[in-house]
Each structure stands twice: as C-alpha cells, then as structure tokens.
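Weekly puzzle thread! Below is a chain. First person to post its structure in token form gets bragging rights.
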Amino acid sequence: MDAVQSGNKSLSPKKFLGLGLVIALIALVLDQVVKIAVEQNMHLGESFEVIPGFLSIHYILNPGAAFSIGENFTIIFAILQAAVAVFVIYLLSRKVLVRSWAIALGALLGGVLGNLGDRIFRDPAFGFGHVVDMFSVNHFAIFNVADSFIVCSMIAVAYMLIRGRNLDGTIGDSPAEEDHGLDETEPKP
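Winning reply:
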C-alpha cells in the first residue's frame, strides 16, 4: 500500500526520488551489461535462435528509433531522450509521492539513459551513435533491454493515467481542477 493510501500526508518527493533512481540504475546496468556481452561475443549481423520460431539474439546497430525509423535524425533522438531524462528526474524529485509512479518513471529513466548512452558514446560520433539491439521476436522489431524498460514503463504509466492515479497518489482530478472556482450554492451557468 502506498503512503498516500494509508493516510500519511507528510511525504517528501525525495523518498521516491531515491527509489526511482535505484530502478533507473538497475535498468541502465542491465541494458549495458547485455549490450557489452553481445558486442564481445557476437559479430555484427550474427544471429542465433533462443526459442526456435519465436526469439533470436540478432546483433545489429540501429541509428534510428523503433523499427529503424528516422535513421538520419539520430541527433534529434539524442536531444529528445536527454529532454525526457531531465523531465523524469524533475518529476521524481518534485512531484512523485507514491511508489508506483517512482517505479514506472525510474524504469523509463533507466531505459532512456541506456539508449541515450549509446547515442552519445558509441560510434560513429558523439550524439550520432548507433544503439545496440539484439532481441528479435519473429515478425517484430529487433530491440534491447532499454527498449523493454521503456515500453513496460509506458504501459504502467498509461494504466495509471487511465485509472486516474496522480503523481501524488490521489485518484481523479485535484480539488482545484474539479471546482473551477464555483461555489456549490451558486447556480451553475
């Protein structure tokens, strides 16, 4: 149970910043360890089946985004990923008051930083680096651990938004948004 649900209103976003950063670090480390293992043990373009007819490990370098879209806009993706990382850190440090949002945003941050690190530090140049991808599901894109964290976190974010779960743990619109300055005793226009 989150602290807001249990009635503890004296929460600080700093408590959840730590949790979010730990989740981000775990995602980032897992992503980079898998990428390094693939690079050290496979040749570019090499592939082998893990689950026949379903999952393969296929080492590629992706200069674009999902499905290799936008291969000529690598620097734009790097800038967007940096902006997302800054915004998520802001949310974690100033707005998040519940564990569920801290975990989801931490996973998003770790995934974004994993791919951003590739774009910044990998060849061919700073800001234009290619992302290492390796998981190939038949009839689908080739992706990496960072992509998995991004997608799973966005599913969690979408679920919480659909359920009306706010960053502070409350459900639904905030009181300021609901009343629109109208007094309940006054007739509504």
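Puzzle host: Confirmed. Bonus trivia for everyone else. The helical segments are 13-41, 74-94, 99-121, 145-163, 175-179.
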